[in-house]
Amino acid sequence: MKKIVLFSFVFSFFAVIFFISCKDSSLKKDKETILKGKVTLLVDETVKPLIEDQIAVFESTYNAKITLVAKSEKELLQSFLKDTSGVVVLSRPLDESETKYFEQSKIKPRTTKFATDAITFISNKKDSDTLVALKEVISFLKGGADSKIKALVFDNPNSSTVRYLTQLAKINELPQTGVYSFKSNEEVVKFVSENEGMIGVVGVNWLLQPTENIRKYLTNINVLSVEGLDKNAYFAPTQNNLAEGTYPLARDLFIINCQGSSGLGMGFSSFLAGEIGQRIVLKSGMLPSTMPSRKIMIKSRIK
Predict the structure, then answer these.
(1) Phi-psi map region of 52: left, alpha, beta (phi>0 left; psi -120 to 50 alpha)
(2) CATH code, residues 36-116+252-288
(3) Are 263 and 86 in contact (CB under 8 A)?
C-alpha cells in the first residue's frame, strides 16, 4: 500500500513539473518579438490602402499578425491615449501634451517618419475647371462670400484633412453652410462623382490605390491642381511635385510606437522605414522618406 501511495505521489509530482515545463515552453514560443506575435495597429483612415499593402507583405515574410483599425484622427488619438493599442500611424507627430502623457507612464514614444502624403482636391468630371487656388479654399473656410468655392466635401469632421485645413485657415471649426462630411474617403469620391459643383477633400492614397468599391467612380472625377499661397503656378499631387516640394498640401506620415518594449510595433516601424517598406511607398505613388537603392548591372561586352 505504501509503495502504491509513493508511486502515486512521484507520478503526480513529475506530472506537475511536466505541465509547468510545457506551459513555460508554450509561453516562450508565443512571446512577442520584433518579428513575431500579434499587435493592433491604429491607422489614419486617409492612408489605409498603403498600410494594408505594407501589412500584407510584412505578414507574408514574418510570423506576425497585425490587426489594422482605421479611424479618423481624433478617434485614433482617443483610442491611443486609452491604450487600446501601443502603435499608431498619423499624419503628424505627437504634440507636447500627448508626449508628456506617455512619459508620465515612463514610456518614451518612438516616432518614425516613413512617407510624404498629399491632401487632394477632386471635382466632378462635368465641372470644367481643374484648377483651384488655396487662397480661395481658405477664404471659403473663413466664410468669405466672394470665394469661388461653393462647397467642400470631407471624409469625416474629425479627420486629419479637416484638422490640416482648419489650422491652415487659422479657424477653430468648419463653416456651418457649404460643408458636407461623411464617414470615409470612399463616400467622398462617390458623392463628388455623382454631384457637380462639389470639391472633395481626400488622401491621395485612395486615388492611387483605389478599392473595388470606388474604382468605378474614378472615371467621373478630376484631380485638381493647386496654387499655393506663395506661388503663381498650379501643381498636381504627383510624386515628382512632392519630391520637389512644389505641391502645397504635402504632409509627412509617421508611425508612433508607445508599446514600451521591443515588440512587434518596433519591428513593423523598422520595416516601414526599411528597403522593402520604402519600395512599397514608392510604388503607391507617395514619396518615400528615403529613396530605395537601385542596382545597376554594367556589362563589359554586349553579345
Answers:
(1) alpha
(2) 3.40.190.10
(3) yes
